[in-house]
Amino acid sequence: MTKKILLLGSGELGKEFVIAAKRAGLHVVACDRYNDAPAMQVADEREVFSMLDGDALTAAVEKHHPDIIVPEIEAIRTERLFDFEKQGIQVVPSARAVNFTMNRRAIRDLASRELGLRTAKYFYAKTFEEFKRAADEIGFPCVVKPLMSSSGHGQSYVHNENELQTAFHEAMEEGRGDVKEVIIEEFINFDSEFTLLTVTQKNAPTIFCPPIGHVQKGGDYRESWQPFQLSKEALKQAEMMAEKVTKALTGQGIWGVEFFTKQGEVIFSELSPRPHDTGMVTLGHTTNLNEFELHLRAIMGWPIPAIHLEHKGCSAVVLAKENADHEPAYNLVEALKEDRTRVRIFGKPDQHTGRRMGVVLCYGDLDADMDALREKAKRVAATIIK
């Protein structure tokens, strides 16, 4: 009997997951707050509602009777997932994991206070007075984020006391869901940052993809490359921390675990219990299985014999240049002239300046010049939207 998946959130990551699931013969119902979201375009069925509406979420579950619920976004009434899990529905990776990681307070406290992982110094604040006291304690510069958000929404870097009011207001206004609280943390003048895609399995050991380097702007990913060069000792530290935190959260699937490095030290940053935007680089033939195929296999309990690095590769995002209630005009001609280059258009129905609309993927042999690949990807990405 074909298993039915209820996908909560239907963005570009969800779209690639649906493609992987459909290739395996599964039935997918894609859900999001707006119609014709990217994953809906390739799914079997769709539902349009706010996943912060617990009753609407329950109604969708009762209507479709899914075997598996796969969250793709943060803004979900996560406490309902425990009820669904008790009913025998598989929640990916688990209701506990989703409930923890959708809120920065829970995951940061777990990593730092319970598991003893090295993190940036941090405080929480619900009022501006609490926020200012925390800033005085941490010092400048510092980083401010909503407790619940994604893609850099509401995140800012504060350089002095004059910027505190604006940063606090943006974080409170841009936070997802009904959590009105911010986290203020030490700014780590890191040497680099990277993602370690971590695959937890039901009846097999936790395994890892080669590390992925990335560049963010305003907390939102702009480019990524694989492999990211790390010393054996640093990689071992990262794998140990990733395995420790994912084991504590429980469940099976792929996790995007983010780290900083500073003078050889590995510092835990954040974690997502699902495919990661920086992991879209795996769509460019870097590994034998891309992150969405790995997620699906782990969810279904299917074997993953090994993860192999097959090419060097990189990704660069295609950004919208205006606010408009329609898609931009895409020009693929120049991109398609390039060898070992792929373009993925997400299919988002409207634009706002800086919104990710697609991604360019470039890859080469294992001895290829990574800097040249990265420059190529960024150059090509700039030609997609005129």
Topology:
Elements lengths: L3 E5 L3 H12 L3 E6 L12 E4 L5 H11 L3 E4 L7 H8 L3 E2 L3 H7 L2 H11 L7 E4 L2 H11 L3 E5 L9 E3 L5 H11 L7 E5 L5 E9 L6 E2 L3 E6 L2 E7 L5 H18 L3 E10 L2 E8 L18 H10 L11 E8 L13 H4 L4 E5 L10 E9 L5 H12 L5
Parallel strand pairs: 1-2, 1-4, 2-3, 4-5
Antiparallel strand pairs: 6-9, 7-8, 7-9, 10-11, 10-12, 10-14, 12-13, 13-16, 14-15, 16-18, 17-18
Protein architecture, described:
It is built from 11 helices and 18 strands. It is an alpha+beta fold. Helix 1 packs across helix 9. A hairpin with a 2-residue loop joins strand 12 (212-217) and strand 13. The strands form 3 sheets. Strands 10, 11, 12, 13, 14, 15, 16, 17 and 18 form a 9-stranded antiparallel β-sheet that branches. The chain has helices spanning 12-23, 54-64, 79-86, 95-101, 104-114, 128-138, 164-174, 232-249, 291-300, 333-336, 370-381; strands at residues 4-8, 27-32, 45-48, 68-71, 90-91, 122-125, 142-146, 156-158, 182-186, 192-200, 207-208, 212-217, 220-226, 253-262, 265-272, 312-319, 341-345, 356-364.
Number of strands: 18
Q: End-to-end span in angstroms?
A: 47 Å
Secondary-structure element string: EHEEHEHEHHEHEEHEEEEEHEEHEHEEH
* Global shape: globular
Instruction: Give the % helix.
Output: 25-40%
Tally the helices: what do you get?
Answer: 11
Beta-strand content estimate: 25-35%
Q: Tell me about the biggest sheet?
A: 9 strands, antiparallel
Weakly predicted, low-confidence segments: none
Radius of gyration: 20 Å
User: What value does the average pLDDT take?
Assistant: 94
**Structural class category:** alpha+beta
